[in-house]
UniProtKB/TrEMBL annotation:
It comes from the Archaea. This is Phosphoribosyltransferase domain-containing protein. PANTHER family: OROTATE PHOSPHORIBOSYLTRANSFERASE, URIDINE 5'-MONOPHOSPHATE SYNTHASE. Keywords: Pyrimidine biosynthesis. GO terms for biological process: pyrimidine nucleobase biosynthetic process; UMP biosynthetic process. Pfam families: Pribosyltran. The keyword Zinc-finger does not apply. It comes from Candidatus Marsarchaeota G1 archaeon OSP_D. Pathway: Pyrimidine metabolism; UMP biosynthesis via de novo pathway. One of its GO terms (molecular function) is orotate phosphoribosyltransferase activity. InterPro entries: PRTase-like, PRTase_dom. CDD domains: PRTases_typeI (cd06223). Residues 54-151 form the Phosphoribosyltransferase domain.
Length: 171
């Protein structure tokens, strides 16, 4: 069993993946907030993110409020990198919390990528600082066009899991 399959199995065991519940609008519904109450699964995701992110050379890591911030924080701590985050703010002026400087190499972390609408706003905010955006790293890509929209803007997306890998998973 691959580490990806093991992670999917563990997410399923803790009830984070819901394939056939009619109370959710989108199926499968993936509730990554459940991970925070299951340290072993949290650790699996942290290690997988570290494995994915570590090969890249970068100066700072940014988290997208709210769900991306815990992941960005632990990765920044483990890799001894600077941290900033982006608020879901209507005004670009108040969106960035922390400091980034021109020419820094930046990575951005979030939990789930869907259509990418807020991620695109975050990318625009970051790029306005004249930095080099290495990529957007997510735990789950719901494959609803977000990666494609980011690609159109020259931004690579790296995901631990894709929705298509979960669609037919049942224990």
């Amino acid at each position: 069993m691959t580490s990806k399959q093991k992670l999917i199995e563990e997410l399923n065991k803790i009830g984070a993946i819901n394939i056939d519940d009619s109370k959710y609008d989108v199926l499968p519904f993936v509730d990554l907030k459940r991970v925070f109450t299951h340290p072993h699964v949290f650790g699996m995701i942290v290690e997988a993110l570290l494995e994915t992110i570590s090969p890249f050379e970068f100066d700072k890591i940014g988290g997208i409020e709210y769900s991306g911030l815990p992941w960005a924080s632990i990765i920044a701590y483990r890799l001894n990198k600077g941290l900033f985050y982006l608020r879901r703010s209507e005004t670009e002026r108040n969106a960035l919390i922390g400091k980034i400087s021109p020419y820094e190499k930046i990575i951005l972390v979030d939990d789930v990528l869907t259509t990418g609408s807020f991620t695109l706003k975050a990318v625009d905010t970051i790029k306005s600082y004249n930095v080099s955006l290495i990529g957007v790293f997510v735990i789950l890509d719901r494959e609803e066009g977000g990666s494609e929209e980011l690609k159109k803007r020259g931004v690579k997306t790296y995901s631990l899991l894709k929705l298509s890998q979960l669609r037919f998973y049942k224990d």
